[in-house]
Amino acid sequence: CEILSSLPLQISLYFNVYFFPFWWLITVAILYLKYPVLSDYYKFILVTIMILVSLTELIRLYLGYVGNLLEKVPELAGFWLLTLLPQLPVILFLLFNEGLKIHSLERAVHIVFAAFLSFQVIAAFFTLKRMVNTLATRFRLTEFHRLEEQRPGPG
């Protein structure tokens, strides 16, 4: 019985759980400080992004833990998709959009968060690929043994 979960992915998720509240506090504090100088549409965008990232990150980390530790493909696939689609582009938007008047501390925490997300996308992809291939092989072997039992014996 081979273990399919990924230790590097789990370590990354573990540190991400502790880093996210730090990232959130820094981002909210800097947003509070620069809020008066932002244009109205950037104010709306940033508040929406903070709500979206906060909710998505909680769900994403839960799915990552369950999918990796319990070797559940649907949960790990959900984690991978939530990392790849909403989270990574949003963090890259926060990191590279100069209209947001990015503070140096804010840039630093966004770089660390983007590094976590990038690593997790790659690690989850390979873990997911290994899990799917192994589970498909187990399914085929189970079906083969079931058919062998149903086949009538010689003579």
Automatic annotation (TrEMBL):
<keyword id="KW-0472">Membrane</keyword>
<dbReference type="Pfam" id="PF09799">
    <property type="entry name" value="Transmemb_17"/>
</dbReference>
<dbReference type="GO" id="GO:1905515">
    <property type="term" value="P:non-motile cilium assembly"/>
</dbReference>
<keyword id="KW-0970">Cilium biogenesis/degradation</keyword>
<comment type="function">
    <text>Transmembrane component of the tectonic-like complex, a complex localized at the transition zone of primary cilia and acting as a barrier that prevents diffusion of transmembrane proteins between the cilia and plasma membranes. Required for ciliogenesis and sonic hedgehog/SHH signaling.</text>
</comment>
<keyword id="KW-0969">Cilium</keyword>
<dbReference type="GO" id="GO:0035869">
    <property type="term" value="C:ciliary transition zone"/>
</dbReference>
<keyword id="KW-1003">Cell membrane</keyword>
<dbReference type="GO" id="GO:0060170">
    <property type="term" value="C:ciliary membrane"/>
</dbReference>
<comment type="subunit">
    <text>Part of the tectonic-like complex (also named B9 complex).</text>
</comment>
<feature type="transmembrane region" description="Helical">
    <location>
        <begin position="77"/>
        <end position="96"/>
    </location>
</feature>
<feature type="transmembrane region" description="Helical">
    <location>
        <begin position="44"/>
        <end position="65"/>
    </location>
</feature>
<dbReference type="InterPro" id="IPR019184">
    <property type="entry name" value="Uncharacterised_TM-17"/>
</dbReference>
<feature type="transmembrane region" description="Helical">
    <location>
        <begin position="108"/>
        <end position="128"/>
    </location>
</feature>
<keyword id="KW-0966">Cell projection</keyword>
<protein>
    <submittedName>
        <fullName>TMM17 protein</fullName>
    </submittedName>
</protein>
<keyword id="KW-1133">Transmembrane helix</keyword>
<keyword id="KW-0812">Transmembrane</keyword>
<comment type="similarity">
    <text>Belongs to the TMEM17 family.</text>
</comment>
<feature type="transmembrane region" description="Helical">
    <location>
        <begin position="13"/>
        <end position="32"/>
    </location>
</feature>
